[in-house]
């Protein structure tokens, strides 16, 4: 996020695009409700009538995979009306003429045709967003999980720069990160091309710094492989050993059948986790780690805030924190690491990671102690530190790009609409889009072991429009078969007008009906994110269906 | 009103219990007092919501005012003089508590909230005569069918915090006041099950309830609050980074609680944060390493054997195919320290940049 959770509600207009906030980030959803309570305007762009779409001033119910067309349409109208912020564009950005030319090459009507959103609504949204003092954009995987994910993000950034809505409270481009520490895992170098702090692995200075700090010679100076590329390299026999720490690719990755084949093929697979996950089935060695409630350490949240994780329990007998297991294996492989605590690792992180230079345990603890009983949401200084925080005198950075972008000037990238990889056909006449639901989480490793959650939602539910259910003879609550070019699953039908006719939605949390058995593996060429949001599918009633069956639409609230 | 020369912020000055203090326009008397560390009792006040002024427990005296004023709702003025405790205030608060107890079940020994109940605390602090007005406990028979939220409206004091947090903070409105006067009960519309009135099972109402009317169902009659150890930590589900307090007893988690004002979440949590942490207690947790045996089955082993197996195979493959034959998946669930160590291992010990995690999924 360029901004902080605390200033989300300060926007006059919020564009929420590709984020089902009240389910996937419920406590940020509270801030969206707060914005509505304060009389501000909300525009929701989402293929589904999600909860916030019902409360929004404007719901742009776009077809899955048409984000760029919609956003470009909005920008076309902003230019037609002369609502762009020329002062911001001239002083803070570059490449505007080329960008402007590309926007002018498509009309609002064309955007409406592609996205399915009425041209009138596109214009209204553009005017709402461009004419207020402060507008912000919140987005999530509904922007990124496409083979055009990078372009989608660039289009969002263009809209924000075109109207000068960045670098102040209540503005900005705010991706909501999905997992508790996905931000931190990226910050720490859990990516193929960077060390911690996004220092490039092909930058000689960064390599020299790490060699010095780690006391090793780093031979590999090339970018490594991403998850999806790893799976393909296993097929080719290039990758023979895979070490998985706290991930469950069998459920989380697209095209499950391919992942299964790869994991079955890899010569040696080590899986380290808290439960015997679906991925453990393929392991040669399984190592038991403890849960985060038994760990000391830090998590970094979606607004770059590093917060202290404290062990509430001793590690269950037989388990240990992940870093300790890694250290044991490292020493078997000849390294002489001597970390004695999570804090001792953070001390090293402070030394080699510029953004984390001043984020020490001492400061994090001192901040927790300062807290008064009267802290209100605005005064969140007592919770952790937001990077960049280069040294111990720095108080952290709540708003990025204020006054100046990280790269200097903001760059307008001309991006054009590209179709999703799969379109409907006679054989696969519907579109499946996937995501998260409120009660369960990711691959279910934790949430499906929580009785309090299973009592609420025990099964995988497929959202189906009442018209489709009627046509196919599908009753609410009955099991159905959903098939794509890659496989078939049998979830329970949830008949609801949250989805429009021709669209079905399903979360991917359920191993017994894994949505990712059906999803497309095609990657965005730059970010390597797979297109999980659009797959062509065929839906069938089981046992021939119940023609003319009484359909009971439900307001799915949980 | 004064203007701070550095910040340009307007401040005003008032007197609280004889002490001169500065305040910001818009501050309530309660806010100023809490900042000073002066304890004022409240039942209906919750900083997550607008002041309500319903319970009349936070009454204070303001010079020149017609009568006592509720500190939670009264905004401070320049030159105001506030007295937070006097014989009169003590008696008034005591009176309010006695009225509340006159139809309260007084079943503290079996109440889930005992030890964590504002009413219990204040009754003790204000040395109340238990039931000087007679005792007429409520006797509502109601639905209690939510898997995580236990409900006992007979213990309810009608402070409305559950009503307001669901309506004003969550924007939903599952709870409302039904009936009038003595018969008032907080209920769902038409007494429908919670699941039919849009409940998202966040348990925010439980976190708001100052007494034992709404409590954690799954830890009922399990461990008393004073027997638990309390640790503040960060939720391991989504990327918001909510803080909560893990209440533990010996080697297990009992319940997750929050206080208003806690963390960036201000004491708010969702269903997963509040009711989804029991996986740590699961008997199905992995507690022993496993290795694949000659028959191809995964069998329990010791750490020694499992790490031997990892070492042998990592060394074999590195020798046969080099570092480039390795890949590692770090974790969006693990800590920064875990992830740093993991990528350092893959890069610095194995010698490959084939490190990734499910950031894109």
Helix/strand structural class of chain B: alpha+beta
State the distance separating the first and last CA atoms of chain A: 27 Å
> Radius of gyration of chain B, rounded?
28 Å
Q: Could you say what the CATH topology of the largest domain in chain B is called? A: Alpha-Beta Plaits
Radius of gyration of chain A: 24 Å
Number of strands of chain A: 20
The averaged pLDDT of chain A comes out at 91
Helix content of chain A: 25-40%
CATH architectural group of the largest domain in chain A: 3-Layer(aba) Sandwich
- Largest binding interface between chains: A-B, 160 and 116 residues
User: Low-confidence spans of chain B: pLDDT under 50, at least 5 residues?
Assistant: none
- Look at the structure and give the mean pLDDT of chain B: 93
Shape of chain A: globular
Q: What is the CATH level 1 assignment of the largest domain in chain B?
A: Alpha Beta
| CATH topology assignment of the largest domain in chain A | Rossmann fold
Strand count, sense and barrel status of the largest sheet of chain B are: 6 strands, mixed
Q: Can you count the helices of chain B?
A: 8
Brief digest:
The complex is a heterodimer of chains A (558) and B (361). Chain A has 558 residues and is of the alpha/beta class.
Describe this protein's structure.
The complex is a heterodimer of chains A (558) and B (361). With 558 residues, chain A is of the alpha/beta class. Chain A folds into 3 domains: 5-176, Dimethylsulfoxide Reductase, domain 2 (3-Layer(aba) Sandwich), CATH 3.40.228; 182-386, Rossmann fold (3-Layer(aba) Sandwich); 430-544, Barwin-like endoglucanases. Chain A is 31% helix and 15% strand. Chain A has helices at 21-24, 26-37, 51-55, 67-80, 86-92, 96-104, 108-115, 119-131, 141-144, 149-162, 182-187, 204-214, 227-235, 249-252, 256-265, 322-332, 342-352, 361-370, 451-454, 466-472; strands at residues 13-17, 41-45, 58-60, 93-94, 135-139, 173-175, 241-245, 268-273, 285-288, 297-300, 305-309, 385-386, 410-411, 430-435, 461-464, 480-484, 487-489, 492-495, 503-507, 535-541. In chain A, strands 17-16-20-14-19-15-18 form a 7-stranded mixed sheet. Chain A has a 5-stranded parallel sheet with strand order 3-2-1-5-6, with helices on both faces. A 3-stranded parallel sheet of chain A has the order 7-8-9, with no helix packed on it. In chain A, helix 13 (227-235) crosses helix 15 (256-265). Chain A is globular. Mean pLDDT of chain A is 91; it is low at 372-380, 547-551 and 553-558. Chain B has helices at residues 29-36, 87-101, 118-125, 161-169, 204-208, 271-275, 303-321, 336-350; strands at 2-3, 10-16, 19-23, 59-62, 69-70, 81-83, 149-151, 176-178, 185-187, 214-216, 229-234, 243-249, 252-257, 290-292, 298-300, 326-329, 355-356. Chain B folds into 4 domains: 2-85, Ubiquitin-like (UB roll) (Roll), CATH 3.10.20.740; 103-281, Alpha-Beta Plaits, CATH 3.30.70.20; 287-320, no CATH class; 322-361, no CATH class. Chain B is built from 8 helices and 17 strands. The two termini of chain B are 55 Å apart. Classes of the chains: A alpha/beta (558), B alpha+beta (361). The interface between A and B is large, with 160 and 116 residues. Strand 7 (241-245) of chain A pairs parallel with strand 16 (326-329) of chain B, so a sheet runs across the interface.
């Amino acid at each position: 996020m360029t901004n902080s959770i605390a200033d989300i509600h300060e926007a006059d207009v919020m564009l929420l695009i590709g984020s089902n906030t009240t389910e996937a980030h419920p406590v940020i959803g509270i801030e969206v409700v707060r914005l509505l309570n304060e009389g501000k305007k909300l525009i929701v762009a989402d293929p589904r009538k999600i909860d916030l779409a019902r409360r929004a001033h404007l719901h742009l119910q776009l077809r899955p995979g048409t984000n760029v067309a919609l956003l470009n349409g909005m920008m076309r109208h902003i230019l037609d009306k002369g609502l762009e912020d020329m002062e911001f564009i001239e002083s803070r950005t570059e490449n505007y003429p080329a960008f402007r030319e590309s926007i002018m090459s498509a009309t609002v009507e064309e955007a409406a045709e592609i996205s399915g959103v009425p041209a009138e609504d596109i214009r209204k949204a553009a005017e709402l967003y461009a004419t207020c003092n402060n507008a912000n954009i919140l987005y999530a995987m509904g922007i990124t999980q496409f083979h055009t994910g990078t372009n989608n993000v660039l289009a969002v950034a263009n809209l924000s720069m075109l109207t000068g809505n960045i670098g102040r409270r209540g503005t900005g481009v705010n991706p909501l990160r999905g997992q508790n520490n996905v931000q931190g895992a990226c910050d720490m170098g859990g990516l193929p091309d960077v060390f911690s702090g996004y220092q490039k692995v092909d930058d000689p200075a960064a390599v020299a710094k790490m060699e010095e700090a780690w006391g090793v010679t780093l031979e590999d100076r090339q970018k490594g492989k991403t998850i999806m590329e790893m799976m393909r390299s296993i097929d080719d026999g290039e990758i023979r050993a895979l070490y998985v720490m706290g991930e469950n690719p069998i459920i989380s990755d697209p095209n499950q059948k391919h992942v299964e084949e790869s994991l079955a093929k890899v010569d040696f697979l080590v899986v380290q986790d808290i439960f015997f996950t679906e991925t453990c089935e393929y392991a040669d060695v399984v190592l038991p780690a403890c849960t985060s409630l038994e760990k000391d350490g830090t998590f970094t949240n979606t607004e770059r805030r590093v917060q202290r994780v404290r062990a509430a329990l001793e590690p269950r007998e037989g388990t240990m924190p992940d870093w300790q297991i890694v250290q044991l294996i490292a020493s078997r492989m000849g390294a002489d690491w001597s970390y004695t605590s999570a804090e001792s690792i953070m001390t090293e992180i402070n030394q080699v990671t510029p953004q984390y230079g001043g984020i020490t345990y001492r400061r994090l603890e001192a901040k927790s102690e300062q807290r008064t009983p009267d802290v209100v949401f605005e005064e969140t200084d007592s919770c952790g530190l937001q990077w960049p925080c280069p040294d111990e005198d720095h108080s952290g950075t709540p708003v990025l790009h204020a006054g100046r972008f990280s790269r200097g000037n903001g760059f307008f990238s001309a991006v054009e609409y590209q179709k999703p990889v799969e379109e409907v056909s006679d054989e696969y006449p519907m579109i499946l889009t996937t995501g998260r639901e409120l009660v369960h989480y990711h691959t279910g490793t934790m949430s499906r072991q929580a009785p309090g959650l299973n009592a609420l939602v025990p099964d995988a539910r497929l959202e189906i429009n009442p018209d489709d259910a009627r046509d196919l003879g599908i009753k609410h609550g009955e099991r159905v078969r959903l098939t794509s070019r890659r496989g078939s699953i049998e979830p329970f039908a949830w008949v609801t007008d949250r989805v429009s006719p021709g669209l079905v939605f399903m979360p991917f949390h359920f191993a017994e009906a894994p949505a990712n058995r059906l999803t497309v593996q095609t990657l965005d060429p730059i970010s390597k994110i797979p297109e999980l949001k659009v797959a062509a599918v065929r839906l069938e009633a089981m046992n021939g269906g119940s023609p003319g069956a009484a359909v009971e639409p439900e307001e799915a609230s949980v | 009103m004064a203007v701070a020369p550095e910040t340009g912020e307007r401040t005003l000055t008032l007197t609280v219990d004889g002490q001169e203090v500065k305040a910001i326009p818009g501050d309530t008397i309660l806010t100023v007092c809490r900042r000073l560390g002066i304890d004022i009792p409240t039942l209906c006040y919750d900083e997550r919501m607008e002041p309500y002024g319903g319970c009349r427990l936070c009454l204070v005296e303001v010079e020149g005012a017609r009568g006592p004023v509720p500190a939670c709702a009264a905004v401070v003025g320049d030159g105001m003089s506030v007295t937070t405790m006097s014989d009169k205030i003590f008696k008034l608060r005591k009176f309010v508590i006695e009225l509340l107890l006159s139809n309260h079940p007084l079943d503290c020994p079996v109440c889930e909230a005992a030890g964590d109940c504002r009413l219990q605390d204040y009754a003790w602090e204000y040395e109340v005569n238990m039931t000087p007005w007679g005792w007429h406990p409520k006797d509502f028979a109601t639905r209690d069918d939510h898997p995580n939220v236990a409900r006992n409206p007979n213990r309810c004091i009608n402070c409305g915090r559950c009503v307001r947090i669901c309506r004003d903070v969550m924007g939903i409105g599952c709870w409302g006041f039904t009936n009038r006067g003595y018969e008032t009960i907080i209920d769902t519309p038409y007494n429908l099950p919670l699941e039919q009135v849009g409940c998202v099972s966040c348990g925010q109402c439980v976190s708001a309830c100052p007494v034992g009317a709404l409590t954690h169902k799954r830890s009922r009659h399990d461990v008393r609050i004073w027997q638990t150890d309390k640790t503040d930590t960060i939720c391991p589900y989504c990327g918001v980074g909510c803080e909560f307090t893990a209440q533990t007893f010996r080697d297990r988690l009992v319940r997750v609680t929050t206080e208003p004002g806690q963390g960036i979440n201000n004491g708010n949590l969702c269903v997963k944060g509040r009711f989804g942490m029991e996986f740590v207690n699961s008997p199905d947790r992995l507690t022993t390493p496993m290795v694949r045996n000659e028959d191809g089955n995964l069998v329990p082993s010791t750490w020694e054997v499992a790490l031997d197996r990892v070492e042998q195979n990592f060394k074999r493959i590195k020798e046969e195919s080099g570092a480039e034959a390795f890949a590692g998946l770090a974790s969006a669930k693990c800590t920064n320290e875990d992830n740093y160590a993991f990528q350092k291992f893959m890069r610095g010990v194995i010698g490959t940049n084939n490190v990734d995690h499910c950031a894109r999924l």
